[in-house]
User: What shape does this take?
Amino acid sequence: MKFGPEPVAEAQGAILAHSVDLGGRKLKKGVLIGADEVAALTAAGLPHVIVARLEPGEVAENAAADRLARALVPDPDAAGLRLTQAFTGRVNLIADGPGVVVMDTDRLHALNRAHPMITLATVPPHQQMTEGGMVGTVKIIAYGVPGAALDAACAAGQGAIRLARPALRSATLIVTEIPGGAGDKGRKAIAGRLEALGMMLDTVEHVQHRAEPLAQAIARATSDLILILTGSATSDPADVGPSALMAAGGRVARFGMPVDPGNLLFLGDIGERPVIGLPGCARSPALNGADWVLSRIACGIPVSGDDIAGMGVGGLLKEIPTRPQPRAGRGRRDT
Assistant: This one.
């Protein structure tokens, strides 16, 4: 690309590099200079103007942004995304409903290495989205980029980002009761989380904080997802929640997670239905580790023990005022 000052009389056909105030009329940067613009610049007494000119084989910013976005999302309906119209070298990728962002990070890194003027910024992998949220933005920084570099970026990013839409529709919440416990506190926050994922909390059951009645409640639950919120924090794989799941014929895949708040989560299944033992901090609407697991499970994304172990880097979340023991205190089991 040729970039720099040119005499106004010779600028027709170039791209205006910087906006120019003509006293009552503003020529915005990025406009293609035509005869009218040359006349206006001349009338304003400007001898030179800074312009950009594409060279053979280069692709203009809007065309490049649109092409890259369509490579990333070749089938917007299937990907759960919609693309905005290219403007100033930018196309936004917008969530077309609730869901979780799934991406091939290695390929997206390769896209961003294709050329410094070709960029894609995204939310973090597995970010939960609501309808209308921005998943990513393609931005062509210069007024044009080499076609070969654009080809490489498009090939690297082909179909590399999508929105996993909710696959589960209903949930049962089982709450265990202890004397002086929290009772129904947290039901509203949990229902809100499910609603944000397009799910319905169709059953809430309260049982004594013992393995036998909890196991019976797990066994009779019929919803797509089972959530367990114990009145006393789960402190061991043999505690009431995990042992009740196993007694009901289920499986515990993971107890504990390196996310704070949210350490005391357990994950398992009974038959084909996933089971999440919620940490006590799930009674608050504030973000916690359970949100990261719940959103993936709700959207049909398997979560393994290794996946949970990998959540620790970046897993120190904001302190929430409802925690019974702040991090600076001496309490042990608070999440």
Summary: The longest strand covers residues 200-208. The radius of gyration is 27 Å. The chain has three domains: 2-53, 58-164, 170-309. Residues 170-309 form a domain with the Molybdenum Cofactor Biosythetic Enzyme; Chain A fold (CATH 3.40.980.10).
